[in-house]
Protein: DNA-directed RNA polymerase subunit omega
Amino acid sequence: MQKRSSFDSAEIMHRAEDLMQAASNRYRITVQVAQRAKRRRYEEFDAVEDPLMKPPIRAIIEMSDELTQPEIIGE
Structure:
C-alpha cells in the first residue's frame, strides 16, 4: 500500500536546486538545512502537523520561501 504525500517531490527537488544555486557554498547551505530540520524536529516533537512531511523537507520548503532574506542563505 502506497502512502499519498501532501507535497510534490519534483517541487521539492526544484526548491532544493534553487537553494543550492542561491548559496555561495553548497556545504554550508546543506548544513543550514540540516540544522533547521533538527531544530524543528525537537521544537515540534509533540505537535505534528503533517506526519508525512519530514523535517528536512519542511526545512527546504521554509528556506526556499525565505530566499529574499540574505541572512538565511549565508554571509
In short: The mean pLDDT is 79.
